[in-house]
From TrEMBL:
One Pfam family of this chain: AP_endonuc_2
Protein name in UniProt: Sugar isomerase
Keywords annotated in UniProt: Isomerase, Manganese, Metal-binding
GO-annotated molecular function: isomerase activity; metal ion binding
Residue span, Xylose isomerase-like TIM barrel domain: 89-275
Gene3D superfamilies for this protein: Divalent-metal-dependent TIM barrel enzymes
InterPro entries per record: L-rhamnose_isomerase (IPR050337), Xyl_isomerase-like_sf (IPR036237), Xyl_isomerase-like_TIM-brl (IPR013022)
Amino acid sequence: MSTDFHQRSLSLLSEQLAEMGKSTAELISQISAFQIAVPSWALGAGGTRFGRFSIGGEPRNLEEKLEDIGLLAKLTKRTDAVSLHIPWDIPKDTQAIKEKASSLGISFDAMNSNTFQDYGQALTYKMGSLSNADAATRKQAVEHNLQVIEIGKSLGSKGLTVWLADGSNFPGQAHFRKALEWTTDSLKEIYGGMPGDWKLLLEYKPYEPNFYHTVIPDWGTSSLICRQLGDRAKVLVDLGHHLPNTNIEQIVATLMHQNLLAGFHFNDSKYGDDDLSTGSIKPYQLFLIFCELIGGAADGAQNWNSISWMIDASHNTKDPLEDLIQALEAISQAYAKALLVDREKLTHCQLSGDTVGAQAVLQEAFLTDVRALVREARIQSGGEPNPLAFYRREKIREKLIAQRGKNAQASGL
Ligand code: LRH
Ligand code: MN
């Protein structure tokens, strides 16, 4: 795309925005300020139980993961932080990792604990972790989370994300109320072990890997537990963790209403927890979610800066870096479109029962092509006009393969 074409499409859009009463300069500063953390585990090929197909040039250690996120930051200017997962990302040399990250302009967002796998710890998590009927296993899981907090403190993180696979596969297998009580008591110990300026992000998920019940299956259960922990415990919304046709934008509005929204794991899905590229399946839903976020913050329901923005995706067929470039772009576009909503006109339609008018207000914003705006924000921040084109033109994947090797194909099942 020529610079001239970009300038002409931007000036045309700016005229349109002025008609809508929107300042291009203000929108560009809002879009530029909106940074999304990238998960350390989404830089390689993910895979399913049926197999994993390596892409080659995948990061072999934490240093190389930081380099990949540094590249994304440089090209897109839409990410400035990484979310680590322990024990997958235990730093061998914390000081060196901190220096590497800061040299790449990357900070450490929420840390993720892992009590859904066995990785050589003394007691297995097969039958659960914080909800396990065995007190020693619960204690082990609590201690793991406290260790994750210590690692996070040494890196400058200010949050702990807890997602539990805990649940059951058959009726009668679990005692629902005891499991909930053990989980809540365990989380109280973890919450108590967090520094005063940290937040606990409690992630819910309706099913998988357990397929009959999950101890924390939905926003309601997560909210109930957070209320018992304290006001620095809030609910993490992973977009893929909802049963089909769930109204996620309403959940977001409800959590903001209660000042209980911790943040997001952005991705998209057609059926289950598919962890597909954000905005690739349901871009209108993503737009509606941002409409609730902007409205909730504008009305003072919850402070915008108290919310964490993270991607959580898994790449089975796409190049992970290309996928993340597309996801960062889709999130920025959804946010930019939602900023165009005439909130005064929308509120008037809502209060006067003008349903048609309300839809027209939303769709005028959603159907506005904001690509020139998001591109201009990136250019003004020193990023690439077209990161994907640059990534391919510079043959970055080929260079990574030459540098890091083809990485082994791992068979699944
Ligand atoms: C669970 C989840 C959680 C992570 C894991 C990698 O499905 O969304 O956020 O720990 O994916
Ligand atoms: Mn998640």
